[in-house]
Write a structure and sequence with these properties.
single chain, 82 residues, alpha+beta, putative fmn-dependent nitroreductase like fold, 2 domains, three-stranded mixed β-sheet, 22% helix
Length: 82
Amino acid sequence: MLLGATEKGLGGCILGSIQRDRLRGELDIPGHLKIRLVVALGKPAETVVLEDVEPGGDIRYWRDEKGIHHVPKRKLKELIIK
């Protein structure tokens, strides 16, 4: 869903810390359905740049002098255990 939203120029975020009972009431969600996560979609308010991180590198997010949000990400080969 988030990849599809990105293709349409939208941004998104998956939320797990939500008021499930309130949400169920507001949206009239039947009791037999379990609310696990919420996906928030909208127009991005900022520019985000994903950057590869070398093994052992810093993965903290940061903003540059132009306000661009840099998000370091580990490479896939570091995350997959064979």
